[in-house]
Structure formats: C-alpha cells, structure tokens
Amino acid sequence: MASAELPPSKLADKASWPQWLAQRSTTSHGIWLTVAKPKARAAHAVTSLTYADALEEALCWGWIDSRAKRLDETTMTYRFTPRAPKGTWSKRNVAIVEKLIAERRMHPQSLATIEAAKADGRWAKAYRVGKKHCRTSEIPRPHQILVRG
Q1: Residue ranges of the domains in the chain?
Q2: What's the pTM?
C-alpha cells in the first residue's frame, strides 16, 4: 500500500494509540498518526499523544516510524507501519527497544521480530549503520527532549 493511501488519524490521547494497535497491528498496513508539536501541545490540546510515546508504543507492537510531515503550525504527522520482515534496525530503535524489554512492555509479535533480527545479524548491524542511513538513526531535533524524558 502506498503511503499516500494510509489513513490519517488524530487520536485523542496516549491511551488511544495502544488500543488502536491492539485492534489493528496485525491487519493494518500502516497509519499517518497526528501529534501536536511540542510547544503547541499544551496551548492547543490537539492530542496528549507525544511523538516519543507513539514511537515507544509502536515498537512494543513491532511497528516503526518512517516519515514525518508538517500539517500546520501546531501539528505533525508521522508514518507508522509494521516492521518489514528483513527491515534494518537503527541505533535509536535498538536502544529504545532494550529499555522496553527491561520494562516488560514488549508484545510477543515484536519480540519475535527482535529474535529474528538477532539471529540473522540485523540487530548487531544497527551499531554499524553507514552514512547513508545516519539520518534514520537520529531523533529529529524537535523531539530529542521528548525521548530523553
């Protein structure tokens, strides 16, 4: 499915995203998920779902983020899709997943993709990402503070 065909969604709060994933993570091809920009979130209350929370929850279900688009002055939309069976792992996502595993938040379908990546070497290769992929392993500047907590 082309990314333009993925449905847009503006979920009301942080609890709505895991509910959406629980219902659709094995059947959906992806979603463009809207979140408020960090400075706009409190002022406009578009959603309480943050980029960092959305990414963590997606990783728990075996999904990944890929692209971001500015919608307007207060919102961004991020493309989230199921991880491809032989998809590469970024340093950022490996670090987040290791934290989520320690917190026992990972779902079985995601753990299976991690075990497969460890078995075929993709997990270890995340630490040797070349220049071509450096941008994908870095957190966008406006969201760095959200992930660091």
Answers
A1: 3-148
A2: 0.78
